[in-house]
Amino acid sequence: MHDHAATVQGKLYTSYGAVSAVMWMLYDTAIHFDVEVDCIWRRPTTWVKYAYAFVRYVPILNGGAVLALTANLTYPPAGCRGWIIDQLVVIECVTVAVELVLMLRVYAMYNRNKIVGALVGGGFAAEAALMGTTLALVVPRQTFTPDCLVASSPGIYMAYWLSSLCFETALFALTLYKFLRGVARARGRHSVLFLFVRDGTWAYAIIFAAMLFNTLMYQLVTTPLAGMGYFFALSIMSFAGSHILLNIRRLGMRMDSAPAALDELSSFAAAAVSDRWSSRRTDATEELSAVPPRAGAGVA
């Protein structure tokens, strides 16, 4: 009786959490839609626009579809496993997209240093391989409730979340190191660098919290309540990725309208302003944080 009550309660709380996460994503999209139109949809079409559309709207569509198509319905284990694979593929793709954006920012901060690029790229490849391998081992061994909530997962599943935690921590450490070196040299004048670090810090904090929450839930909870972390992590990834990209575009627009920002930028990454600047100034500014300078640069 106790196990049945815990299962029912876990299912209820997981459903509440899923609805709350989807509603939060919708709310955040609505209150920032005017900024989104100005910074994304009215700007030139670049990779930022595609990345934003993916990390902002795919989680909303997927979360809504999962809630709508699994509510008050029962599926055989094979059907539930298909739903779980769908959810895991979506969150894996969103995680990869957000981490690619964070990687490009770190690469830009280090002026396209090849050593840093190799280390970050190698770490990312190792993380992706570990996450994919973990999912391949975990999914066949998961059990489900009749309405397709995860009832139990093998302990190895925590490796999926821990790998992302470790990689995010490494990116944050690189960001913080560069910021501290920059402040020491420029005495806090680099507002562009400060923007990079500010966004990197809050994004790291909330993503770390989401990943840690999932790790603990799947490790310590043996009821459907463990599945609550999926929607929480999906919404956090969507929020972090979309707002980082919005701020990249805001930076480009600020540079376009404020020549003083160019002076700040020149001491951070002067070589990024190429000969194209005079004819395609808007495009250059908007992509600057992701297209780092080519000219010489060391790690420090």
From TrEMBL:
Keywords linked to the UniProt accession: Membrane, Transmembrane, Transmembrane helix
One Pfam family linked to the record: DUF6533
Family matches, as InterPro entries: DUF6533 (IPR045340)
Parts of the chain that traverse the membrane: 50-71, 83-104, 116-139, 159-180, 201-221, 227-246
Domain (DUF6533): residue spans on this chain: 16-61
Protein name, entry field: DUF6533 domain-containing protein
